[in-house]
Structure formats: structure tokens, C-alpha cells
Amino acid sequence: MTAPPDGRFVMSYLEGFLLAVPSGNKDRYKAHAEAAAPLFGEFGARRLFEGWGDEVPRGKRNDLWGAVEAQDDETVVFSFIEYPDRATRDAANRKIMSDPRMEAMDPMPFDAQRMIFSGFETLFEAGRPGACGYIDGVVLAIPADRRERYRAFCQASADAFLEHGASRLVDAWGDDVRDGQRTDFRCATQAEDGETVVFSFVEWPSKAVRNAGWGNLMQDTRLMGERPFDGQRMIFGGFTPLVDQALVGGRAV
After folding, report:
1. Among 135, 150, 204, 232, who pairs with 210 as Cys (CB 3.0-4.6 Å)?
2. By the 8 A CB rule, do 140 and 192 touch?
3. What does the H/E/C string look like for 50-81?
4. Full-prediction pTM beyond 0.85?
5. pLDDT of 147-164, one tens digit each?
6. Are 37 and 248 contacting, i.e. CB atoms less than 8 angstroms apart?
């Protein structure tokens, strides 16, 4: 990626995923993701990230557990694939679905019917990509006509996050939000007519830095302004990186 003059990076498109994996299948899931990563890289993906649920709170109205109908013996996974643009992502998905190498892999070690995924275009990004030791994942619903208000909200809070230890923030706007038969992003966030879904994350160097950072952020007045969304329907959790591969032409770098 090329850094603009203000130090911010531009990453154009995300395929965002939420899924539930039997906790005992952690190693199998990691191996499956690592085997699939080179194929996505060959077809144009820049990065594949798999975050294993570490601190995923239960909510009163909705949460990440309910988003994927996770059971007590399962772990929530927050995952995404970065692409330079939607056209590359669309072409990659077509190729993946028909590639015999994908079909030859071991069966998916999770219930794919409860996996939810959609395409998101980057609305705001700050910080620098690099080694990620911990990540906070957030999904929320927001009125579509508040897009620019939400961007301004992200800009206003980004400096505080970076000052308190975050290495990168990405907020991605729902572009190709798919309806599911059992679960999907709209149901997960209780999205109403006229709302879209935002897929967002904050990268930290480590969990220790993240915990200290949030302690400071809770007192930072820059985060105490009015939010342009219903915070009671925001779902979130903390995740440890299980697979995090930058990809160039099918190779991990």
C-alpha cells in the first residue's frame, strides 16, 4: 500500500465474515484457512485474517454469539479478506467456487450454513498496517443517510485510538450485504429499513496494549460525543490472530 501525505492508508474492499467453529476444531480450522490463503492470494486478495474469539461478550439485545447461533462449545471467529477493489473480489469468488483445489481440501470444520459474509467498501482507514497482536471487531447498523456523519465520527475518534496505542482502524460500509437463510448481517444487527451494515475493526500490537488503551479511551472526551448510530445494537468482541497472512500473487509475505 502507498501512504498518502497524512500517513493514512487506503484499502478499498473487504469481504467480512462471522462464523462459529467448534472449539475443539481450532487447529483444523487454522490449517484449513492456511491452505485456502494462497488461492485467494493467487486470485488477487492482499490479506487474509482469521481472529479467534477471546473476549466476546453476551448482549442484552444482540451479540456476536447470536449472530452465528454459536453454541457453548463453539468459538466465534471474526474474519476478513482484503482486496484492492470489488471487481477483484467478485472475480476471486467466482474462481474459488470452481477451482478444483478448493474442492480437494478437507471438509470445512464448521457449520457453513451459519457462516455470514458480505462485501464492504472502505469508508475510513487510519494508522499503518503491520503486525497485529490483537483485534477488536465491531459490526453495527447505521442509517444510510448518515454515511458522512459516520465518517466524520470515525475521523474524530481515530486520533484518540492511535494516541492510546492502536496501530490501525478500518471502517467498511455495507456494499454487497447478503441475505441468508438462517443468519446474516442484517439480522445480527437488527438492521431496519433504510439502514446499512458497517464492518469495523481496530488492530492493536498486543492484548496488553489494547487493555491499557481502552482504559484510557473510556476517559477520553473525544469519544464522548453523540454517536450517529444505535449503540445498543452494536455487536463486538476481542480476537486473537489465528491466521494473518499478507498475500502477493498467491504467496504469503
Report:
1. 204
2. no
3. EEEEEECCCCCCCCHHHHCCCCCCEEEEEEEE
4. yes
5. 999 999 999 899 999 999
6. no
